[in-house]
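Whether sequence alone determines local backbone shape is best considered at the level of individual chains. When preparing material for the folding task, we compiled for one chain both its residues and its backbone structure tokens. No coordinates are needed to read the tokens, only the vocabulary itself. For completeness, the protein is quoted in full, as a sequence line and a line of structure tokens:
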Amino acid sequence: MAGGVVILGASHAGVQCAAALRDSGYKGAITLVDEGAEAPYQRPPLSKGFMTGATPLENLALRGDSFYSTEAIALKAGVRAERIVPALRQVILADGTSLEYETLVIATGGRGRPFLDHEPLGNVHTLRTLQDAWQIRAAIDQVDGPVAIIGGGYVGLELAATLRTSFGRDVHVFEASERLLARAASPSLSDLVAQKHRAAGTVLHLGCAVAGLAQSEGQVSGVVTDEGAVVATALVVKGVGILPNQELAAACGLACQDGILVDQYCRTSDPSIFAIGDCCRFPDAVSGKMLRLECVQNAHDQARAVASVIVGDAQPYAAVPWFWSDQLGMKLQTAGRWEPGMSCVVRDESEKGKISFFHFSESGRLGAVETVNHPSLHMLARRMLAAGLSPNPADCADATFDLKKLLS
């Protein structure tokens, strides 16, 4: 098996794929390639515990130091893949060397979406990598004054919560949509999150497009809205989504469309090449729609699905998508996918600090469950969605009704 498996990208998807291959009994060579010089690390803590110092650098590691040697996984860090040559089953690296592969897995993730065409300014950042997080931490220590977060998605809101509660900074969040989390959450959940952020003292500018940045002596000094208002700020973090890193795939002829296109086994248009995680677009097992999900769960589950194919026990990717976020004392968890047009049923347990939103399609099918501070119900919702159950909406609203009965 010359070359074995080569995995491009050593973040959540790539490392999980390597681990799943060994767990599944794969004995061939495995090589992980990543242009980052750091050991593979977790990304979710970057906006929270790592930013405050509560999560030290050593606790970010995806795997312990001995994992790669113990599992005979070659980790080539700090090396960029330049080109894929499918006809030769080769990957050409930036250092002039090449790797042969029997199977190639592309797990290159994504990068921050470009936003605002302006000359480089001091204290304007994105938060995607460990290096980004280091730079923001340093800026927080060095710069006084308000902080502006451009983009009201989960990572930006986590960072806003961290800066407000742990550092006491004045924080402004700018979101072009009329509500927070417009792509990722229902109006019910986004309204609750907005309420909590306002109560914490964060200023939300909703339905407010950013037209530019004001500057003074090469440093950012304000955010300019599309109505011409200037909101003073000493630090800006841009978080308006990501673009999939699909350039290597597109250059070698793989089908791409806002992500590398794959089938239900995460196989690309070349049968010897797979793509997983943030960089790929796959068919949803329920709706059949092509989706690209940006979350750790999706990366892990697709990695395991690909490992099963490589070892000859092919399992299609049909996992129920789920997601979590911790901010302002709330554990936000979503199972399934909310879509516009779904009806919402509220299970109000606010006396216990919990609330849940059940979302049903027009046909009555349960499509998503969003929970706040209710991990056990989140796990139950994942099981219900995986089983294709659609409970009575009245039972979902009744906090005294034991939903576990539906799975017995």
Q: What stands out?
A: Residues 114-238 form a domain with the FAD/NAD(P)-binding domain fold (CATH 3.50.50.60). DSSP finds ten helices and 26 strands in the chain. The longest strand covers residues 210-216. The chain has three domains: 5-111+242-310, 114-238, 329-407.
